[in-house]
Amino acid sequence: MADARTEAAETAPDPAAIAVGVAERPAIDAPDTALWKTEIGVLPHTPAAILRWAVFAIVLLLLPQVLGPYWLSQINYVLIYTLAGMGLQILLGYTGQISIAHAAFMGIGAYACAYFERLGMDFPLAFLAAAFLTGAVGAAIAGPARRVSGLSLLVASMAFNFIVQQAIERWTPVTGGDNGLSLLDLDLFGLPIKGIGAHYYLYLGVVAVSLWVAFNILRSPLGRAMNAVRDSEVAARSMGVDIARIKTIAFGLSAFFGAFAGALYAHQITFISPDQFGLQLSLDLIVMLVVGGAGSLAGIVLGAIFLVVVPELLDYVLALFSSTGEPPGARPILEGGLLIIVMLFEPWGLYGLWLRLKRRLFTRRRAGAPAAGGGHAA
Amino acid sequence: MLLEVADLAVHFGGVKAVDGVSFAVEAGEVFSIIGPNGAGKTTIFNLISRIYDPSAGRIAFKGEDITALPAHLAAQRGIGRTFQNVELFAGGSVLKNLLLGCEVHRRTSFVEDMLFLPRVRRQELAFRARVEEVIELLDLGRYRHAMVGGLPYGLRKVVELGRALAMQPDLLLLDEPSSGLNSRDTEIMADWIQEIRRRRPVTMIVVEHDMNLVAAVSDRVLALEAGRVLAQGTAAAVQADPQVIRAYLGE
Amino acid sequence: MVEFLQQILSGLATGCVYALVALGLVLLYKATEVLSFAHGDLMMLAAFIAYTIVMVWGGNFVVGLLVAMIVLALLGLVINRFIIRPMMGRPIFAFVLVTLGVSLVLRGIVMLVPIWGTDDYRLVTPLDGKVLHLGPFLLNAVSAAVIVITGLVMAVFFLFFRYTKLGTAMRATAQNALAATYVGIDTRRIYAIIWAISAAAAALAGVLLAPMLFVHVNMGIVGLNALPAAIIGGVASLPGAVVGGILLGVVEALAGYYLPEGAKEVAPYVMLLVVLAIRPGGIFPEVVAKKV
What CA–CA distance (Å, rounded) separates A231 from A228? Predict the structure, then answer.
């Protein structure tokens, strides 16, 4: 039987394998420590992979020089949504907790960061302090969240999101309430971060670090334990996994990274108000994860692109058709229709679509289903 | 005595699934529990591995009273098990499932995991070495990276056995290891159990229907019916017990 | 004290509306494991249909109500056949998102229709302006009618599920779809009927709600409150949905009267969290333990 190493992001995410397809592995009988090290590691280890990574890195670093301000700004939003998606993925995809409260975490992070900056803290300190605060909130709700599951957890998380939004609206001395809060200028250890390009590098840096942490989680006992909680709580307990501890960590980490995304989002749009962090945003993030193809980091990026590009696309299409201005119902119909079509016809999301295209374009001998991670995260 | 169970009982609604069961298991032995369906065999496993809480009675493991201990701590104390309906982690490969067996040996905190410090890397390599031993024992080399969802049932049972072995438990609870297997796979399973006994002496409690398997591997046998003990002793003695014969002939 | 009870009485009417929607949602969820985010906007569409028949075409209120229910029932069948059925077996989020898509499309359609659009409209009923005097208490005739109608519908539901063959078949399908097929029940037909009933319930709720609010494209947001109501009652319990809905309406009314600004909006959600903290399974929990 061919030893098919499928493209799960669960084991070492070797970009070479993901990009081209499946490499057949011979059966190994003797302890092969060198091999295990490469399977555990994150960095590329074949010349082809190293080259691919190097090119990719160079392209990323040079992007601001090449793209105009409009497209670079779109990329900035993609980066922020990717970060938000990663935080959600930790709770939803890795640990299987059905929660639509991520916007609340982003909101708490955004407002906390803005508030700490107004108190005089430097951005890096305010940023981290906001993240730890939000993480603590996340960990705190893990306790009650543990006692409910499934649909009840979903609706309870909705309730939490709504209540946090209301709290932000009411706590006027700190948050400015309905009047919103404007963000102070951003500077990093004295270096002002002004302009789209500077913001891009900041976001890229945060996303890169977060991505590294996400990979670390996946290839470590923590990630395995999270997946175990997702796949079978009973078996997990029998293997010595402390379910309470894992759920607390999952909620806490999800909130922590949600705060990262929220704080960066705040600095991107420079003015925040409570209505931005409601159910709409939480659902947008779910759309992103599911449409993108949850279970893989690539899917999250694709989902983020989807989320940023589609409204622009709709604007463009509607502008073409209507000379008298956009007809009022057109946008929701197109958005809704697109959502329905994607959900009906591509269960594995855009990432699944991409895998199918890839298989047809790069025909190498290949067996098995698309990334097993594609389905279970939702 | 590695494990002592005294007057164990559990009620579900009005049903007494387990009613005043007492037995003891010596270190190194293979102890089988037999009985008709619904006799309470798996329930006893669930009580020992602490998935259920008993209504009455006492469980002592390695001298410690574990009657109220949470399930994950019972696992950390050295109790491993397999399940009647295979409970593997569907989203993972064989390797990943086996690696989860090493969770009880984890010494790194979650922060260290997130940063993947050298300690974590060393631990991962050590875990991998341990798991490779199990893979070699159970001949799973070809399936190392296969997704468990796609494997045939018999193979999944072997993987689940391997996952429990990776824990290096002091007490291994095997719940109907031959259920759903054809006679050839059952023989293979019997061979694994013998092999495990040879290589690393682990105490086992086996719930089984297949009397051939029971007779082949067991040191002592307990016969259960409707939550109560019918007979205890060697396989031959229990098989000859008139109460046991009545219970089995009547089913 | 009188004020307190008066508020309870007022809350009862909205509670009945919530109960109707929650009932439809729980029915759907129990049978098909689909959580519909479209029901709020189904309500809204029904209200617009009734408005058109009564206010624009000068028809009878009852006729408007019945037409709205029939149209929505048919829409429910269409949604089930072309959107839900192809997706059976997918995880719950897939259905959340696809019903979200349906709700967006419904809103878009309502916005596009020339006589509808984004304005507020009033749905006038024959009982407008009439007030019942029950001892020291006042109750709008409209609200009273809502309570009575809801009560009747619940009774019909109860009798239907208990005593008719179709009702029994539906209960069987809700409990164990696989077993139901083995007994010869056509589960696909049952799912279709459940969608029709669930949509009709939403239609009834929408038309009953309309006189109490305004008919507006955003009125579906109220339907979202039915979700906490369903969970409070116990996500798999039909009587629970009714109890939860009514409780929610009453608590909302009390919060609006006694508590400061903004409390009314959060009241359903705070109540949900409080109930779940005390009883994680809701008022009528369903005990489901996985057998290992």
Answer: 5
